[in-house]
């Protein structure tokens, strides 16, 4: 089989390389730089196991900027949210379909992996693919569930849903994915597959919102929510998620809107989004409470990636927190051991904490656990720290004289 994979990002590249273990794969990206990087033997972003996989399948993989004839076309391009309108921006999906249809031949298979609002395959993608007048080709939506940082393991081991325009499309896609997927492959129709993917991320967003609401209530109720969640989760049918400074990334913060826009009845989706979006404001309130009376404060943000141990800053709540803090007149310095490019300069740890009045841990990067509070105490101006992830060894920081606030733990403040 020859596959043409459109979009060589976090999802498309590992997918293309996993298929290249058994098939000939042409990876297509409109970003020339990505194609050049790959063809020079490098990987354009960090992902555990990806360089090793790349080396293994190099002979079966080539990156290009143009589509060419193939048996299977797979679309893994971005589907961002138009932030002001809160609707899906489908321009990349539309362009991909436009790029594929001139090359589409009888019995070819097209797989849409990108996350899309329900009905997109039938209303937008299929009509473009049919523009060449082709009668018989196969089409499925096969949404991706893998998580950055553990993408390869999850792509191989997760169960997946395959939604075809007909049974033969689903069966063919199943056979193809079986070349590397060890998880179960469940067959359905296109619209259900689109909906299922969005339900999954909406479920997580709403449950994180609930955990965030619990975290804010913990202070009012003078309890430690992290202990309370641990206890609640001893119930055989309860699994409260972790609170935090907000939800970011390419999926959970965005996909619920893809469902919401298609519904006149949904109520919980926007409420959950509102709660999660307000968490940076809540974290800033904690900081302000701690720094009351201090003029011209400088704060240090530890972690701008949207989640721990990755370099991905898409839709990170850190950005909103920083901008809110700047609006309050704070000077903000940023450190992240993984992130190389960000809207704000990424400093090394010593520079970032120098003369700081408060350290605010936003991302649960594992290396932050190794930070030595004794060394930090010599650099900062004031010993204050806010831990929004309950990550640090708080006793150690306290013994160095740090005043600590933990999101979701009673800290006796006025709010
Ligand atoms: N990243 C995740 O964790 C994740 C998880 C599940 C699902 N998804 C979904 O997978 C899809 C892809 O996400 P991603 O994170 O890989 O995006 P990404 O931004 O990392 O990569 C997408 C790539 O597609 C390229 N591209 C854009 N238009 C193109 C075109 N017409 N032809 C060829 N290439 C094109 C871009 O240059 C980019 O390199 C999205 O719909 C996303 O919602 C992502």
List the SSEs and their pairings.
Elements: E1 2-6, H1 12-19, E2 24-28, H2 32-39, H3 50-57, E3 61-64, E4 72-75, E5 81-82, E6 87-88, H4 91-100, E7 109-112, H5 120-129, E8 138-141, H6 151-157, E9 160-164, H7 167-177, E10 185-189, H8 190-220, H9 225-232, H10 255-260, H11 268-277, H12 279-290, E11 298-302, H13 317-327, E12 331-335, H14 349-353, E13 358-361, H15 373-379, E14 384-387, H16 394-399, E15 403-406
Parallel strand pairs: 1-2, 1-4, 2-3, 4-7, 7-8, 9-10, 11-12, 11-13, 13-14, 14-15
Antiparallel strand pairs: 5-6, 8-9
Task: Report what the structure shows.
With 415 residues, the chain is of the alpha/beta class. The chain has 2 domains: 2-189, 3-Layer(aba) Sandwich (Rossmann fold); 224-415, NAD(P)-binding Rossmann-like Domain (Rossmann fold). Helix content is 38%, strand content 15%. It contains 16 helices and 15 strands. The protein has helices at residues 12-19, 32-39, 50-57, 91-100, 120-129, 151-157, 167-177, 190-220, 225-232, 255-260, 268-277, 279-290, 317-327, 349-353, 373-379, 394-399, and strands at 2-6, 24-28, 61-64, 72-75, 81-82, 87-88, 109-112, 138-141, 160-164, 185-189, 298-302, 331-335, 358-361, 384-387, 403-406. It has an 8-stranded mixed β-sheet, sandwiched between helices. Helix 4 (91-100) runs parallel beside helix 5, helix 8 crosses helix 11 (268-277) and helix 12 packs across helix 13 (317-327). The longest helix has 31 residues, at 190-220. The N and C termini lie far apart (62 Å). The model has no long low-confidence stretch (mean pLDDT 96). Nicotinamide-adenine-dinucleotide (NAD) is lined by residues 6-12, 28-31, 34, 76-79, 92, 95-96, 99, 113-115, 144, 146, 148, 250-251.
